[in-house]
Design brief:
Blueprint (H helix, E strand, L loop, with lengths): L1 H57 L6 H10 L4 H37 L2 H8 L1 H22 L8 H28 L2 H18 L1 H6 L10 E6 L4 E6 L1 H9 L5 E4 L6 E2 L4 E7 L5 H11 E4 L8 H16 L6 H19 L16 E2 L4 H18 L3 H14 L5 H14 L10 H16 L3 H15 L16
Parallel strand pairs: 3-7
Antiparallel strand pairs: 1-5, 2-4, 2-6, 3-5
């Protein structure tokens, strides 16, 4: 028995090690997708430039010969002078780069303390920051490569000159990087960046929505549930691969249970297959398992729900009593309102099912519901911290957008407002909040949601009774 227990422990460890090794390609791909790709290209360009300048210094200069002679007579008079200049540049670049990036990480950590880890994510994803990192490291490597070519009989005049010019440019780029880093740490800049990434991620989902259904249509008798082979977030769904296997089973339908960004633990159901007798259920199940990609890190480029979650986390943290900073919360509410306004008027034909390349695949699109849930959460935390202006901004945003919402989404907005009334008694009826309640009541009336409008006016009337009286949270709204 002890031997058996030891074998099972060893097997578990082996499986864990194998799972970690299997995750390496995903980790590397995620690192390049979020940060490493641009710096790597910039560094590679500097290395190729170092090789090119070495070849130029070794060959005949032709028209550049007068320039080489002038440089050798005034700056790089001999290999020893070039060595000293290049050594100074390389050492200075290494020092400046290490100190600058260390201080930058400290500043990012301080900013993340109040704005959550989304600060790191947005900083890494900005192309300008990636170019800065590649620029400093590339100049350092260019200088070191050029320094390695210096010999008593060889003076890399052009390479040393470029290294000197790059070092001068690095000092100015350092100023740009410092300004850019400070600018990017503003709450508005972080939230705008998340907003833009979320919009682009939703646009990238257009093909997925266009080629799939929202409701199942299959009536087959053969059924199979596909379960997750590992844990992770759904980061991709290969529709082309599923389409190929479905052509061999034209009466089958795949009902996906998880949307992009959803989490699945090991063994969780990820899809149901409805097929006709005689269809290859095992083959379909294996194809679904391969087509649904599970990763440990979410992908903001393809997952708009992740952007919504980041904005919700930032807003919740700053609005709540833990931070009491309403400005980021207001910025988040306004960005969420813009997303609602954009997505509410999206062309319904973009997600139609009557397409030539439509597939018998049901995809549970939950982005709009996730957006409404995020707005709902912010009304809750605004009541907890008594930030009446945040709550008023939420109501005003819904009121302004109400006439553009389709009927089903308008009813969901009404539900958000009605649920938020449960915490209205925790607020003080400021003039701003009173106006916002009037706006949302009028907007609900205009949408034909008269019961919701009446409930809002009744709640506002009850809260108005507390004006001019001494009340606590528990007594602000009288019991009925």
């Amino acid at each position: 028995m002890p031997g058996k227990g030891m074998n099972s422990t060893t097997a578990a460890r082996s499986e864990s090690l194998g799972a970690r090794i299997a995750q390496i390609p995903f980790v590397v791909r995620h690192a390049f997708a979020t940060f490493l790709a641009v710096p790597t290209l910039v560094v590679a360009a500097f290395i190729l430039l170092a090789i090119a300048t070495y070849a130029l210094d070794r060959g005949e200069s032709g028209r550049l010969q007068p320039l080489r002679e002038w440089l050798q007579s005034h700056i790089f008079t001999d290999p020893e002078a070039a060595t000293q200049v290049l050594s100074t540049i390389a050492g200075g670049m290494i020092t400046v780069t290490s100190i600058t990036f260390s201080l930058l990480l400290v500043a990012l950590q301080q900013s993340a303390g109040s704005m959550t880890h989304a600060v790191f994510d947005q900083f890494l994803r900005r192309y300008l920051n990636q170019v800065y990192a590649g620029w400093f490291i590339g100049i350092t490597l260019f200088t070191l490569v050029t320094l390695a070519t210096v010999r008593p009989e060889f003076n890399p005049t052009f390479g040393a000159t470029l290294a000197l010019l790059f070092a001068v440019s690095a000092l100015y780029v350092l100023l740009l990087m410092i300004y850019s880093a400070i600018e990017q740490m503003r709450p508005s800049a972080i939230l705008e960046s998340i907003h833009d990434h979320t919009l682009r991620a939703r646009e990238r989902q257009a093909d997925l929505l266009r080629r799939t259904r929202r409701e199942p249509k299959g009536h087959g008798t053969a059924r199979e549930t596909v379960r997750a082979p590992s844990d992770g977030f759904v980061t991709d769904i290969d529709l082309d691969a599923l389409g190929r296997v479905l052509r061999a089973a034209p009466r089958a339908e795949i009902v996906l249970r998880l949307a992009l960004g959803s989490y699945a633990a090991y063994g969780d159901p990820i899809a149901d297959i409805v097929a006709a007798p005689g269809d290859d259920l095992d083959g379909l199940a294996a194809a679904v398992e391969r087509a649904v990609t599970l990763e440990r890190e979410r992908n903001l480029e393809r997952d708009p729900s992740f952007g919504l979650e980041q904005m919700e986390t930032i807003a919740w943290t700053t609005i709540s009593t833990s931070k009491q900073d309403p400005n980021p919360g207001l910025e988040a509410v306004r960005n969420l309102r813009d997303l609602l306004a954009r997505w509410a008027v999206a062309d319904p034909e973009e997600t139609g099912e009557a397409e030539e390349d439509g597939l018998p695949i049901v995809y549970p699109d939950n982005v709009i519901e996730r957006l409404m849930g995020t707005i709902e959460s912010l009304t809750i935390v605004a009541s907890e911290s008594m930030q009446h202006h945040v709550y008023a901004d939420v109501l005003r945003g819904l009121a302004t957008t109400m006439d553009r919402l389709p009927p089903e989404l308008a009813r969901r907005a009404e539900e958000v407002v009605l649920r938020s009334l449960a915490g209205l008694g925790d607020q003080v009826l400021s003039a701003e909040l009173e106006d916002a309640l009037g706006d949302i009541a009028a907007a609900l009336d205009g949408a034909g949601l008269t019961q919701g409008a009446a409930a809002v006016r009744a709640a506002g009337t009850e809260l108005a009774a507390s004006v001019g009286s001494l009340n606590s949270r528990a007594t602000r709204v009288p019991e009925r």
